[in-house]
Amino acid sequence: MSSVAVLTQESFNEHRSGLLPEQKGGTGAPGEEEEALPTYKDAFPPLPEKAASPEGTQETANAWTSKLRPLKASVITQVFHVPLEERKYKDINQFGEGDQAKVCVDIMHKTGAHLELSLAKDQGLSIMVSGKLDAVMKARKEIVSRLQTQASATVAIPKEHHRFVIGKNGEKLQELELKTATKIQIPRPDDLSNQIKISGTKEGLEKAKHEILLISAEQDKRAVERVNIDKVFHPFITGAYNKLVGEMMQETGARINVPPPSVNKTEIVITGEKEQVALAVAMIKKVSEEKKKNATTIAVEVKKSQHKYVIGPKGNTLQEILDKTGVSVEIPPSDSSSETVILRGEPDRLGQALTEVYAKANSYNVSSVSAPSWLHRFIIGKKGQNLAKITQQMPKVHIEFTEGEDRITLEGPTKDVQMVQSQIEAIVTDLVSRMDYTEISVDPKFHRHLIGKGGVNINRIKELHKVTVRIPPDNEKSNLIRIEGDPQGVQEAKKELLELASRMENERTKDLIIEQRFHRAIIGQKGEKIKEVRDKFPEVIINFPDPAQKSDIVQLRGPRTEVEKCAKFMQKIVAEMVENSFSVSVPIFKQFHRNIIGKGGSNIKKVRDSTGARIIFPTADDKDQELITVIGTEEAVQEAQKELEELIKSLVRLQMTFEHGMMRSDKVLRDLADEYGGVMVSFPRTGSQSEKVTLKGAKECVEAAKKRMLEIVDDLVSIFFFLSKWNGIFLNLCLFAIVAAPPAEAPIQENGEANGEVKEPVDPNAPKKCDVIVISGRKERCEGAVEALKALVPVTIEVEVPFELHRYIIGQKGSGIRKMMDEFEVNIQVPAPDQQSDKIAITGLANHLDRAKEGLLERVKELQAEQEDRALRSFKLTITVDPKYHPKIIGRKGAIITNIRTEHDVNIQFPEKNDENQDQITITGYEHKAIAAKEAIQHIVDELEEMISEDITLDSRVHARIIGARGKGIRKIMDEFKVDLRFPQSGAADPNLVTVTGRPELVDEAIDHLLNLEEEYMADVVENEAKMAYMRPPGGSAASMDEQRGPSKGFVVREAPWTTGNEKAPDMSSSEDFPSFGAPVATKTSPWGPKRF
């Protein structure tokens, strides 16, 4: 049998003498020592054997299980009974089905618990619920509310006790509802009713009612008392360092809240059990009455500058005087001009207190050293190195440098001040003897150019001449530049800076107005084009605005003459771009585009080369697939348009007259042949000018057919329809309509002759042949065709639109005007910006113009409304707020200010670091919303101004636990009590001091909570320290402990197995008794039993 030994804490303490016999008070007799040793069975109790007796088993089991904690099951099972009269679903025939089953399935899904239902003999419902404790409790609540009929009751308790029923964050109420399986409704704070409504089962109602009455009864025992005591007697009640009030609280058990000296309140609040509060009130009043009766006052004059020495750091000196003498010292407020200090206390103690006051007031001295203000930073040294040497030697001396004043103020103990003064005077004398300074006047607009990009210019001057140069920041609006350093370096730096400034004064800045749409074209791909301009004018700096600004201003800066040349050159570039941006859209059927392009682009390339215009065909994404855009100069565009029209005309050639065309119709010829005995009709060849038609057949049939053909020709008429500028549009139509396109107009000779024949003079008002479309057919059909063609002729109208709205109608990259053109199927022409015209032309079909005009005017109304809205939204107001409150108004990660901005739809701008008015917050938006936002900010400021700060002492050992991981704990406390907590930094004078800031009542609650946490955590800290002390024996190092102990015998026991027989104790150094891992060992029998592997 193998044995396992367990060494408990108690047995270790009991047998420690076996390890340290020397600590037992000297060496005892060998017999006594042996009797004190534990037996082997006591130290290592054996495991129970299978054949052991019940008594032995029980005894052994106790030895092993006496220190083991029972494990709780994670899954529990509870059974709930619902009597028949309280069941909501009583249909016995549908047990396991219907609504009851659906409710049970829903409860299982919602809570995660498992439900089993059964019916008792009395038809009551038994429900077994299994699962984790939380899931079972939730399931129970659902079962009671959904499977059991509900009753209701009310219980009345005082209104002020309701909050204790609810508990912190509603936790108490939730716990009560789960515990009793009821629904508890508590009236709102603004409801004057004190009735709490409870709904649930009868059993649950009684439980909930009982619990609520218990909570109310417990609160009835507590009381709150407010006592008004004159502010001047508060120090006597609190005592020095709050000792007296602490003793009162400890003696009575009540909490006493005395307002701090900075809060001008006379009310002292006492809370606790009624008896405790009454006892505390009596003690406070007793102290107050005694001091009123016995205390007297004296007033002394102490310089205002010495008051802070009497007060001491955080009022410690006042507390020290109160502790030593029992006299309260009253100092006038810092904003008061009074120098009178009042001492209040027992008459025999006033003299001693007065001595203390004068001693503290005169313990410090204030002196000044004369030093030019420009030398101050040299005295301080880089990163305060020079000053640090002095302050390390004399840490009690405060050295103050005032900007703009030629003196240094020293404050501290008299002897120390004198020593520091002599050291600083020596430094000043040395600096004055070897350093100089000068000031030069330079216009502030040139300051940033003197500094250079990244400070390159000014840093070069500083390093070259070994000087420091101070250029005032922009917010100072000063033109004085100060140069300090070696006299020779100062003069050289001054000369160079003045030369740079004079060179810059000759510079000029000019703003060019260039439409933003041309900026990218001027810059070119990867800035190639603008690089050429900059290379041509290297002394001119060209700045384009950010595309997001949508600005048309391009800034040029450099020498006056070069800037003028560069401006003219860029204006010339822009003029060429404007000239080359004239465009016309030509509509041509999509199926003819490839014919216009030609094989390998030969046709379109020819047109582009001959005219210099760009011809853009529609892409797959374009909505209108039949519009070809021609861009270039106006002359080039018109020439290209003519060539495109010629290309279209060459595709449309009607090689026969309409009469022949009609007669050639297969249907007409078949009808003639069928009707007139198979007469054959022969037409002249295409291209011939003959109008003869030959008929062959029987004489009578031919005559009848001829007569019929002449009737057909007589029925046909020709109508000439005149067009001028729209011929190109109808050329496409001619390919599908029964119209004859007009032939191209013959060239007109200057002398009116052609081919040597004298022509009659041409009537200038007569229409040209190229403007005539011939329609042939039956009269009524021709007239209908004319009307149809007239309906297709575009019409142009003009609409009045203010010029300043044109760019908004066009939209970004023309998107706005393209959308309207696509929507209304018209062409909209906006006049060029240089025309300053208010007329916009709309061209399109007559039935489309009215809709387009209405749409355009509607868009104008929208834009005008937007302008008015922008004007209303631009209302601005400012609010003055102390900068120290700005972070609180902004909130954590901007949460508070974002909420105000979103709620009131305004823009709130805080001052920049360099702004002059650091207390000005600007609000922009609608006037009423801006005012509302201002009130919201003012409300926050008012709350912040009402806040107080209190210092409490919390053991630094619990700070980390209160703060929590990544500040989670402290954030929870701050959010819960609406206060701000400040813990001391490492190296602080008082590492236990914690500052709580917030509203007075919330600060008190937060302090109570923190003190409770401290008490709770300190118990753990003390326990841990005790354990550590136990684990690390006191008395120095391990070596010294070994010396005290002497040679150790190890852990010694009696009646071990190796002492009962002939076997020896196991050899610790033997590889057989204690083999290494992996080493082969011979098998050996031993008292420990057979080895098992």
Automatic annotation (TrEMBL):
Entries under PROSITE patterns matching the protein: KH_TYPE_1
Alphabetized UniProt keyword annotations: Coiled coil, Cytoplasm, Repeat, RNA-binding
Query: Which InterPro entries has this protein been placed in?
Result: KH_dom, KH_dom_type_1, KH_dom_type_1_sf, KH_Vigilin_N
Q: Superkingdom of the source? A: Eukaryota
Name the source organism: Sparus aurata (Gilthead sea bream)
Task: Indicate what this protein is called per its UniProt record.
Answer: Vigilin
Instruction: Give start-end positions of Polar residues composition bias.
Output: 1-11
Subcellular location, in the record's words? Cytoplasm
This entry's Gene Ontology molecular function terms read:
mRNA binding
- UniProt keyword annotation of Lipoprotein present: no
Q: Which Gene3D superfamilies match?
A: K Homology domain, type 1
Q: Which Pfam family is an annotated match for this chain, by its short name? A: KH_Vigilin
Main localization is: cytoplasm
Q: Please report the stretch or stretches of sequence annotated as the K Homology domain.
A: 149-217, 221-289, 294-362, 363-429, 434-502, 506-575, 580-649, 650-714, 793-861, 873-942, 946-1015
Q: Name one GO cellular component term.
A: cytoplasm
